[in-house]
Amino acid sequence: MATLSVLLHQIDHGTVLLPEFQRGYVWNRDQVRGLMRSLYRGYPVGGLLLWETEPEMASVRGGATDGGVRLLLLDGQQRITSLYGIMRGKPPAFFEGDPSAFTGLRFNVEEETFEFYGPAKMRDDLRWVDVTRLFVEGLDPFIDTFARYPDKFSTYIARLNRLKNLENREFHEEKITGPDKNVDVVVDIFNRVNSGGTALSKGDLALAKICAQWPPARQVMRDHLRQWHVKRFDFSLDWLLRNITAVATGRAVFTALDSVTDKEFETALTKSVGHVDKLLGAVSGRLGLDHDQVLMGRYAIPVVSRLLHLTPGGDFLDSAHRDRVLFWYVHAALWGRFAGSTETVLAQDYDTVERSGIDGLIASLERWRGGNLEIRPHDFEGSTRGSRFYPLLYMLTRVHGARDFGSGLQLHAEMLGKLNSLQVHHIFPKALLYKAGYDRVHVNAVANFCFLTQDTNLMIGKRPPEKYFAEAEEKHPGVLTSQWIPMDSDLWRVERYQDFLEARRELLAQAAQAFLTGLRDGAAPIVAEGLRPMAVLSDGQDDVRVTQIEAMVEELMRLGYAEPALDSEIADPVTGRALAVAEAFWPDGLQAGQGKPVVLELDHAVADLSRLEELGYEVFTSVDALLGYVTRRNETAAGDNQIPPEPAAAASPVSGPAHAEFETAMRSIYDRARREANYNASYFRSMLAEHGSLATARKLLHSPAVSDGFAALWERGRLDLTVEALVLRPRFAELFTPTEIEIARHRLEQFGWSSPSA
Description:
By secondary structure, the protein is of the alpha/beta class. The protein has 32 helices and 17 strands.
């Protein structure tokens, strides 16, 4: 047994550390709050597992002291790290993660509850005690504070003393000892102990063994990942390890690194980084794919790393060789070559590279595709920026010298000068299409996208193409064809939108096929000095769905959940077919390594949800459903209700004319939405049945993101049927706080709707 204060003291002095193979800190605020609540109430919180070892037996994270036996924390990292952060007011030296998960915890001495700091609720209430300050400074500062509560003084101080005495809480310790307990044995024990939690990936296991020989390995790899991040490319440790394994061993499985020495690994790391840099330089400078959103087929890159490693000089032989490699790379990405069993496919391609180089790779890809590497119009039928053909549109824009509608200049950084930021532009404005009855999938079709300078995008605004196309073409002849716009002006009318998309897909497919064929045959056009990177901005500021998802992600990250990939394509591992383009995707679960992969897919009518569920994905088809799931999950983890109590000022009479009229009005907007806007707000109806009208309205107003109903009504041009519009009616003002009324007003004004005066 060891007391918590002793454990924290050992961490301070570097005798309790983390082994290098441990993942970083992954808890969220509700788990931290639940831990403190359990400790305060005297509930069991589990024991600790430590590995007692000599310095030379394992690499550690966090700067150990020289010499002496070390205790490496195998089970209990999340708990002990949380408690250290709260009680010391800073993370431990071995910390990797987000310290906000344990920063700002408060204890209410009246209610004996824990919550994280919220200024509106806590700023003027002395009963919310800063837990970290209590542990750092002791009881003395609070004696004067609570002297002003003579009737409660002894109770409050006793409760603070009880909280402070958690430092003396004892934890049961089990230790793994003995010279036979090497890193391989201990990693196996670790995975067995943590089988229900965050298990190590195959890459983690391989890195654990590498770090035992060469301790700086993980940090050196992270440094390279940060350098790529600065260049707007984001990769993972596992992905970089794939490249290193390819260079060092020519094999796809991480276990191949078992026979690689630390020096060999260091050399392979340096070489693989160089190979990746060469490919990224070609992908950016030759294809214009210059940032993470448009980087295609990242698991094709280890194959190129292996190819360059086997090429004399470790570089492309010449420009023709480079272009053939890029031809293979683009097609491998477009058809989902590595969507399936990555290690199996990589192994096949490594063997092909060794036997017959890039020509063999192209031939193998053609056989895998049944001889079909042709781009066809229907391939551009995807929607959103997550579609695998969105990067192809961007590539064509860059390599073919597409011109800006406003200036007539080619969209090259060197041509545009200070105006070198591009913006995704909806050719047919979203508002126009929604008003005409098109759904989100058609509004965000890839064939409705083009790229313009930000100034031109603002100048066009929400004008229909039949208005601004003719002006652009008259001012800059040929500018429309440079962007693959069909020249039949009848197709520029919103009534012909579907026909416009079909015609533009035909033009895009022809251009893509010609360019890619040119790469293979050595005839693709070349920009003399290469394409320089450009910034690309979204035009989503007036899109309620974009705002809704951004707010949802911000809230989940505030709670300590992982950051998702946005607009992320999910492919079938067997066929490579795109199953969905998820608005948000957590491939390792909401918390890294815990639970199933989570998918938010709003356009579920065009996604294969049954196949996703068959493959083990947890699929949500609305933001409301996902946020509700997270709330229930947090309630279960913490053991109590997470919905904050309604402010006293918001309390309203259970009866009265305004209240009765509001009840009727809330049910009326449900009926009208169904009748007038063809929107069946089933979730809203269930909330009314469960909570009543006032509580439903307040829950929607206090939600971190606008509701699915608000978004659906915005798409239909009927914000007048939202709860927010109802709340702003003067006769209901007495039912809501000024803050709630302001929330409603801000949401509506943000999306272009102003309330009537009465």
